[in-house]
Design goal:
By secondary structure, this protein is mostly helical. The protein has helices at residues 11-18, 20-31, 73-76, 82-97, 111-120, 123-136, 138-151, 158-169, 180-199, 203-221, 230-249, 253-266, 275-278, 280-299, 317-332, 335-342, 349-361, 365-378, 385-397, 401-414, 418-430, 434-455, 470-478, 482-492, 496-506, 511-526, 531-550, 554-567, 572-580; strands at 35-41, 44-50, 54-62, 65-70. The chain has 29 helices and four strands. It has a four-stranded antiparallel β-sheet with strand order 1-2-3-4. A hairpin with a 2-residue loop joins strand 1 and strand 2.
Length: 584
């Protein structure tokens, strides 16, 4: 009778797919009667599950594997959720006994029986059944309207597609995070409708309907919780369909250029981002000329910005028109035209860097150097690290190594940590002077530590912010000088993660030192009072046990472990973990 016999999966299958925690939650859902409307037809098991919301689950077997879907957020991420577990358990119960045991009475009749019944009915009866259902089911109603339009003697009624898209995308009230999976079914349906239209040769209609769908999508965006990025995904799909349809229909290039320009200039959702480059072949010379004319008229109204100037529209309309005219300039391949666009905004060092990079790529190195130096001079109080790097590379290229190293040193001195130390080394190695710069860098880091300790003040609670030597420890570890790193940590302290790393590296040669570090970390770990910390503490105790065993101090470890148990006896989850261990 059933297309999916229970033997195709069992409780172990459900547990393996879901994981221990989700399986337990699914069992609770099943046992409390939250599985409803469980049916099977043509190899598909479907049901509703009542949780924080109502979710729809589908299970089916494909190539001997249990496949699944659920409209909950976890299910939409492709995971086998607790709702799938609950439905699977309900199906296993039904096939084994004919009763769910969940309090939900499942009829003895199956969907196969329903199919046989429908085959016996006349057309009027079937029509009435479908019509009644369509009044309650929006998706079915949209599908029927579209199919009806196709069957009309006058041919395809395209307005039906527009209405179907509107019903699918428009939002009457706020769509919560939990309701988004269900809502996106309408978005997916809209994309499917347009793909179907395009495949049937109605490219011009797809252009209009995809733009309409995108406008509805933008209107709806403020009324949905879209942290998972569904809107971006379906917006991209609709834009891809629009481009494909334009490629087939070849609409009037000037009219298309005007619409694309308006979209890109006014949208805040990046709809048709970079349209002039994407649609270049479709627009042709005529369309590109129209696009350029519109852009230049808008661009003429954009004010110039100098160092430190601000524009309230910098991240709004100004940003979008700048992006458009840059795209037009890139199409010409003329570096000077692109620089002229960039020169309209010199409010930060980044703009100077962009101009320098354009000239560098065009092999106009003198102009590249001029703009990079000008960028640094224009902002004497702070320097952009990327601009410094560009200029240092240009100085190296010209064999002006002293000037390059002066810039690189300033970059290191501004933030003397490991990554900047490595950056300094990469430049010093190019000219064979690393030892000189290394000595200078280490001395500077020590001087900074002394200054910081002197500057630090007692806070209002009487505590003292102690500056430790973590960065110097990291430097010596990077250089694989473990003993120097250990000495530095002993002199000025370092972070607990570094102490642990040092202890691990020195364990074989200096086990006593490592034991001191390990044991000092046990109580702080346990006192975080969470299961992850307890697991870390047990792993640390294993290390302590291994070292003590190697030293022949098993009895001492047992006493130490007993003291840990006694101190933290109220932390039951920790004690359970300790009890599972075979300490030897």
């Amino acid at each position: 009778m059933s297309s999916i016999p229970a033997g195709n999966f069992d409780r172990d299958t459900l547990r393996r797919l879901a994981g221990h925690r989700s399986f337990e939650q699914g069992e609770e859902y099943f046992a409390s009667g939250q599985v409803r409307s469980l049916v099977e037809y043509a190899g598909n098991i479907t049901a509703r599950v009542l949780g924080s919301r109502e979710y729809r689950v589908k299970l089916y077997v494909e190539e001997d594997a249990l496949e699944y879907s659920c409209t909950c957020p976890v299910g939409c991420d492709g995971l086998f959720c607790k709702h799938c577990v609950a439905v699977g358990l309900a199906w296993l119960e039904q096939t084994s006994s004919g009763e769910t045991g969940s309090g939900d009475a499942i009829p003895a009749l199956t969907m196969d029986d329903v199919r046989a019944y429908l085959l016996e009915q006349d057309g009027e009866t079937l029509t009435e059944i479908i019509m009644q259902q369509a009044l309650e089911d929006e998706r079915l109603r949209r599908q029927l309207l579209v199919k009806t339009a196709k069957g009309k003697p006058r041919g395809l009624v395209l307005e039906s597609y527009r209405a179907a898209i509107r019903e699918a995308i428009e939002v009457d009230e706020f769509v919560s995070y939990y309701d988004m999976p269900s809502y996106t079914l309408g978005l997916e349906e809209s994309v499917d409708l347009l793909q179907e239209l395009l495949a049937e040769g109605h490219a011009a209609a797809v252009i209009d309907r995809s733009e309409y769908a995108l406008s509805l999508l933008e209107e709806a965006f403020e009324s949905v919780h879209d942290s998972d990025g569904y809107f971006g995904h379906y917006s991209e799909k609709l834009q891809e369909l629009h481009h494909a349809a334009c490629g087939k229909a070849r609409p009037d290039p000037e009219e298309l250029a005007e619409r694309l320009f308006e979209w890109e200039l006014d949208t805040v959702w990046n709809t048709f981002y970079g349209a002039v480059e994407t649609y270049e072949a479709i627009l042709s010379e005529e369309g590109l000329a129209a696009y350029r004319e519109l852009a230049e008229a808008e661009w003429a109204r954009v004010p110039s910005l100098g160092p430190g100037d601000r524009d309230e529209e910098r991240y709004g309309k100004r940003f979008r028109i700048t992006r458009i005219v840059e795209s037009l300039a890139r199409l010409t391949g003329d570096s000077e035209e692109l620089v002229e666009v960039k020169k309209r905004d010199l409010s930060s060092q980044y703009q100077f860097l962009e101009i320098a990079e354009i000239y560098g790529q065009a092999e106009k190195h003198d102009l590249a150097l001029e703009w990079a130096e000008r960028g640094l001079r224009s902002f004497p109080e702070r320097a952009d690290s990327h601009l410094r790097e560009f200029l240092a590379q240009e100085y190296h290229r010209r064999k002006r190594h002293d000037e390059a190293m002066a810039l690189v040193w300033d970059e290191f001195a501004d933030s003397p940590h490991l990554e900047k130390y490595k950056y300094l080394k990469s430049h010093a190695d190019r000219i064979g002077q690393w030892q000189v710069w290394r000595d200078k860098a280490l001395a500077y880091m020590r001087e900074r530590l002394v200054e910081k300790k002197r500057e630090s003040q007692t806070n209002r609670w009487g505590g003292y912010w102690r500056m430790d030597h973590s960065e110097l420890v990291k430097v010596f570890l990077e250089e694989k000088d473990v003993e120097a790193a250990w000495s530095e940590a002993g002199e000025g302290g370092c972070g607990s993660d570094l102490w642990m790393r040092l202890a691990d590296l020195r364990q074989k040669k200096y086990p006593e030192d490592s034991l001191q570090v390990y044991t000092a970390q046990v109580d702080p770990l346990i006192n975080r009072k969470n299961n992850d910390a307890y697991a870390e503490a047990v792993e640390l105790l294993r290390k302590i046990h291994a070292v003590m065993a190697r030293l022949g101090r098993e009895a001492e470890f047992k006493l130490y472990l007993d003291s840990v148990r006694a101190t933290h006896k109220r932390k039951r989850n920790l004690i359970k973990l300790l009890d599972k261990e075979a300490w030897g």
